[in-house]
Design a protein that fits this description.
The complex is a heterodimer of chains A (about 80) and B (about 425). Chain A has about 80 residues and is mainly alpha-helical. Chain A contains four helices and no strands. Chain A starts with a helix and ends with a helix. The model of chain A has no long low-confidence stretch (mean pLDDT about 90). Helix content of chain B is about 35%, strand content about 20%.
C-alpha cells in the first residue's frame, strides 16, 4: 500500500471521527493545536488506524502520535514490520 | 419551610414534534407515531411497529459540531437541553454565571453503544475496541455528555428505574431544589429506540402483535390490547426555585406540587401487591402536595397497552384516589407515542403543561371498549375540554417501580 493510500484512509477516518471537512485536514496538521482535538479523540483516531490497517501499535508509540504525518509514518512502519 | 419548585420551560424531542406545543397539537389531532420501524430490520421479530423519530438530526438543534462522541441517546438529550434552555430563557451567558444542574432518567441509555463496543471487540479483537465508545458504555454517559456540550456545572445525576426513570428524575430534582441545594436543574428523561431493547421486549412477548393476536396497535385500557409499541424520545424540563424564577422574570408554566414513589417487589406477579404499590405512589404524591383526591382535575396515565400493567394501573388509580375516579378525565398518550421508557413521564408532563395552557386533554387513540371492571372515565379517542388546576401524572414500570407527580397551576408571586 502506498503512502498516499495510507494517508487518504487516515484522513477519511479523521473526518469521520471529528466531523472536520476532509479539505481542512492537512498532512502536517497537529491534532491538538490545529484540529483542537482532545486526548480521547486522538486515541480514537489512533485505534481506528490500527483497526483499518490491522496493525498493532505499542502503547508507548501510540502516545507519541501528535500529527497526521506521525500517524501515517507509524502505520507505515508497522505495516512493514507485519509483512516482515 | 421547603422551597417551591416551578417549571419555566420544556425541551421536547419526540416522534410527534420537537416542542411541547407541537407534541400537544399532534396528540390532540389523533396523529400516531406508530408505524413500521425503519431504524433497523425487524425481520424475524413478532412486532414490526415502533414510534421512532424519523430523520432525527442533532445538528438542527446543536449546530455543526463534532457529534461523534455522542451516541443517539446523548444527542437526543443534548438537543432537548438546548430546546429547554431556549424555551425557559436560559442564555449561554446566564449559564456561565449561574450553576445549572442536570438530572436525567434513562432505562437503557447506552445499551446500543455497549453492544457496538462489544461487537467490535469480539469480531476484531480487544485491541481494536473503540475508546470513544467505551466512554459511552456507562449509564450516565448521556447526562455527562450533555453537561459537556452545554457547560453545565451543577449537580449531574442519572436515575435508572426502568420506565419510571424520567418521572423519578423530576421528583429527585424537585427535592434537590426544595432542600436549597440548587436553584435551577434540568430534569427529565430519554431513551433511544435501538435493536437491542426492541429485541428484548419482543422476545419477552411485551410488544403489540408479538403474540400474533388481535391488537395491532397499542390501545391502552382497551379490551383488545395485547402489548405496547416501543418508542423513543427525550424531554427535559427546566425546574427552578420559585422565587428565583419569579425574580428573573421567567415565565412560570406550572408548579411541581408534590410527588411520591413506591416499589412492588413482586414485580406485577401478584395483582393485589401491584395495585397497592400504584395506589401508595399516588397517595404519597397527594400527601406531598397537600391535595385531596377530588381536587385532581385529570390524569395522564402510564398505560401503554400492556395487558397486565394497564389493569393494575386502572385499579391502582381507583384505590389511590379513594374511588373518586368516575368523572376523572384520563389520557394515555402512549397510545400515540408508544412506550418511550425514560422519556415517557417527562413527555407526559410536557403534554400536561399544554393541557393546562390550552384546556384540551388528548383522547386515547383507538380506545373502543374498556374492561368491565375498570371504574374509570375512559371516554375514547375524543379530546376533552377541561380547566386544570391540578393534574396527576402516573408512571408505572414493568419492573415494579411506581412514581406519581402532581402538577399545579402556578400561583407564585
Amino acid at each position: 500500500m502506498s503512502t498516499e493510500e495510507i494517508r487518504a484512509t487516515i484522513k477519511k477516518s479523521i473526518a469521520n471521527i471529528t466531523n472536520i471537512n476532509l479539505e481542512e485536514i492537512t498532512d502536517s496538521a497537529s491534532y491538538k493545536d490545529d484540529l483542537q482535538l482532545d486526548s480521547l479523540t486522538i486515541l480514537e483516531i489512533a485505534v481506528d488506524a490500527e483497526y483499518q490497517f490491522q496493525v498493532t501499535i505499542p502503547d508507548d508509540v501510540l502516545s507519541e502520535i501528535r500529527t497526521v504525518d506521525d500517524t501515517v509514518r507509524i502505520v507505515q512502519q508497522h505495516l512493514v514490520l507485519a509483512v516482515a | 419551610m421547603r422551597n417551591r419548585v416551578v417549571i419555566t420551560g420544556a425541551g421536547v424531542v419526540s416522534s410527534l414534534g420537537d416542542s411541547s406545543v407541537s407534541l400537544q397539537s399532534s396528540l390532540c389531532s389523533g396523529r400516531s407515531a406508530i408505524r413500521p420501524v425503519e431504524l433497523f430490520s425487524t425481520a424475524g421479530l413478532g412486532c414490526p411497529l415502533g414510534g421512532e423519530i424519523s430523520l432525527f438530526d442533532a445538528e438542527k438543534y446543536l449546530g455543526r459540531r463534532n457529534l461523534r462522541p455522542l451516541d443517539r441517546t446523548s444527542r437526543l438529550v443534548s438537543s432537548a437541553a438546548q430546546l429547554a434552555f431556549e424555551d425557559s430563557g436560559w442564555s449561554e451567558v446566564m449559564r456561565s454565571n449561574e450553576e445549572v444542574g442536570l438530572v436525567l432518567g434513562t432505562m437503557f441509555c447506552s445499551v446500543h453503544t455497549i453492544s457496538e463496543f462489544d461487537r467490535r471487540a469480539v469480531e476484531a479483537g480487544p485491541a481494536y475496541a473503540s475508546p470513544m465508545d467505551f466512554s459511552n458504555t456507562v449509564i450516565n454517559a448521556a447526562a455527562g455528555q450533555t453537561a459537556i456540550v452545554h457547560n453545565l456545572r451543577g449537580i449531574n445525576s442519572t436515575i435508572s428505574t426502568g420506565t419510571t426513570s424520567g418521572l423519578q428524575a423530576i421528583a429527585y430534582a424537585t427535592d434537590v431544589i426544595r432542600s436549597g441545594r440548587a436553584k435551577a436543574v434540568l430534569a427529565g428523561g430519554a431513551d433511544e429506540m435501538c435493536f437491542e431493547s426492541f429485541f428484548g421486549f419482543d422476545r419477552a412477548g411485551l410488544l403489540c402483535r408479538s403474540d400474533h393476536r388481535a391488537g395491532d396497535f397499542p390501545i391502552p385500557f382497551d379490551k383488545r390490547r395485547n402489548g405496547f409499541a416501543l418508542g423513543e424520545g427525550a424531554a427535559l424540563l427546566m425546574l427552578e426555585e420559585a422565587s428565583f424564577a419569579h425574580e428573573r422574570g421567567a415565565r412560570l408554566l406550572a408548579e411541581i406540587a408534590g410527588h411520591g414513589c413506591s416499589y412492588d417487589c413482586l414485580q406485577g406477579d401478584d395483582d393485589g401487591a401491584a395495585v397497592a404499590a400504584i395506589a401508595l405512589s399516588i397517595q404519597r404524591a397527594l400527601n406531598d402536595s397537600f391535595t385531596l383526591p377530588h381536587e385532581i382535575d385529570c390524569l395522564s396515565a402510564s398505560a401503554n397497552g400492556s395487558r397486565l400493567g394497564d389493569r393494575h394501573e386502572a385499579h391502582g388509580v381507583f384505590t389511590g384516589l379513594n374511588g373518586q375516579t368516575h368523572k376523572l378525565p384520563i389520557t394515555a398518550i402512549k397510545s400515540m407515542l408508544g412506550e418511550t421508557l425514560g422519556a415517557s413521564g417527562p413527555l407526559q408532563v410536557a403534554a400536561m403543561l399544554e393541557t393546562m395552557r390550552d384546556g384540551v386533554l388528548p383522547g386515547i387513540q383507538c380506545l373502543q371498549e374498556v374492561d368491565d371492571d375498570f371504574a374509570l372515565d375512559l371516554a375514547g379517542p375524543d379530546n376533552k375540554e377541561i380547566d386544570v388546576q391540578a393534574g396527576l401524572i402516573n408512571s408505572v414500570g414493568i419492573d415494579g417501580h411506581c412514581c406519581s407527580l402532581v402538577l399545579a397551576r402556578c400561583d407564585v408571586n
